[in-house]
Design goal:
It contains 13 helices and 13 strands. The protein is of the alpha/beta class and 386 residues long. The structure holds pyridoxal-5'-phosphate.
């Protein structure tokens, strides 16, 4: 079988993880955490990058930092992972579901203003598949109404928008180092990126269980005490060491993923010409990171039948988000101002092909060949439905 995902591993991780194990400081915010954070702060050019236990927790911290509370509204696309919405619902907010642009599957900025009310406290653009949202226009709208922007950049490490790294355009951005993402902290991990300097000090306190431990260890205060709410959001050093090793191999991981992505695109362009599938669209101002290779077919039955066919040939392909507005929790905690038809349609047509660091060129040949065969056999059937 060709799996859908394999956690990234270059072979250099072992030495770093052993080094962290053998040090006397394995809890968070030690050597490897600091090395990673310095690397990200330089690479992104952000005010502060903080390693945390997951992107989900980074989003929860963002909601606390923005003082989201009961009765507030937060605009989130329906086509996303639960955490983009859950983090704000946990603080008592209502989620206002936004439609997507059918080309990029990112939040439709055109409709954004129609979703804003006097209760709107934040907008959460999700950069799907490592392709940035239209942040230029989104930030213009946010500024006009004085609303904070939290970028869910979970899939975007290494992506650029208008020549700058994704994650520096909003007030806050969150990243994931889960094993399904381009680089991993050995299974689970995340990062909170702060661009608004006013939010930095409080973020340090939130991550340290509501204490001023960081100021204490920097000698800025003489007591270490409870000063605010917070929780245990620090990533452990073994995870940070695994991640740091991947940062040193970052360019190789990114280049190889992009090469795989480009190969899929070139080979599948022939089938796109025949009208059976739609390939991803990358806007001119976006440089993506090869996070996901998705194709869209005619409808949900065609999608399910292609997934089954590929599986029978030894290839694991998968669909993606079930729109949040249609989920049991989304119907309770969310507000829809429209039928969300585009989100429903596009989510049902989409499937993702295997994509991971180490995917071989020959495997991509095999996978695309099976996709080709599937549509050939459909062509030959009288009642072809795809
Ligand atoms: C993966 C992902 C998350 C969650 O990341 P964790 O690190 O697993 O918490 C959140 N949002 C999006 C868009 C994701 O792809």
């Amino acid at each position: 079988m060709i799996p859908f995902n394999k956690p990234a591993r270059t072979g250099h991780e072992d030495a770093f993880v052993f080094d962290a194990m053998n040090s006397s400081a394995m809890s968070g915010n030690n050597k490897y955490t600091q090395l990673c954070e310095k690397w990200f702060e330089e690479k992104l050019g952000c005010k502060r990058a903080m390693l945390v236990t997951s992107c989900t927790h980074a989003l929860e911290m963002a909601a606390i930092l923005l003082n989201i509370q009961n009765g507030d509204e937060v605009i989130v696309p329906s086509y996303t992972f639960v955490s983009s919405a859950n983090a704000f619902v946990l603080r008592g907010a209502k989620v206002v579901f936004a439609e997507i642009d059918p080309q990029t599957l990112n939040i439709d900025v055109e409709l954004l203003e129609s979703l804003i009310t006097s209760k709107t406290k934040a907008i959460v653009p999700v950069h799907y598949a490592g392709v940035s949202c239209d942040m230029h226009r989104l930030m213009d709208v946010a500024k006009k109404y004085n609303i904070k922007v939290v970028e869910d950049a979970a899939q975007c490490i290494g992506s650029n928008y208008e020549g700058k790294p994704v994650g520096v355009h909003g007030h806050i951005a969150t990243f994931s180092f889960h094993e399904t993402k381009n680089i991993t902290a050995g299974g689970e991990g995340g990062m909170l990126v702060i661009n608004d300097p006013d939010l930095v000090d409080r973020a340090e306190i939130l991550r340290e269980k509501g204490t001023n431990r960081r100021q204490f260890s920097e000698g800025k205060v003489d007591k270490y005490t409870w000063v605010d709410v917070g929780s245990s959001y620090l990533l452990g050093e073994l995870s940070a060491a695994y991640l740091y090793s991947q940062l040193l191999d970052f360019q190789q991981i990114k280049d190889e993923r992009l090469a795989s992505w480009n190969k899929y695109f070139a080979l599948l362009s022939v089938i796109e010409l025949s009208g059976h599938i739609q390939l991803p669209t990358i806007p001119v101002d976006c440089e993506h990171n090869g996070h996901i290779f998705h194709i869209r077919v005619k409808d949900v039955s065609c999608r399910d039948s292609l997934i089954k066919y590929l599986y029978s040939k030894g290839v694991v392909s998968v669909f993606h988000y079930v729109p949040l507005h249609s989920s049991p929790m989304g119907r309770n905690a969310g507000i829809c101002h429209s039928k969300m038809q585009r989100t429903t349609n596009e989510s049902q047509r989409l499937l993702r092909l295997p994509m991971f660091f180490g995917l071989k060129n020959e495997e991509i040949d095999v996978i695309t060949h099976h996709v080709f065969d599937y549509f050939e056999s459909q062509n030959n059937r009288l009642l072809a439905h795809c």
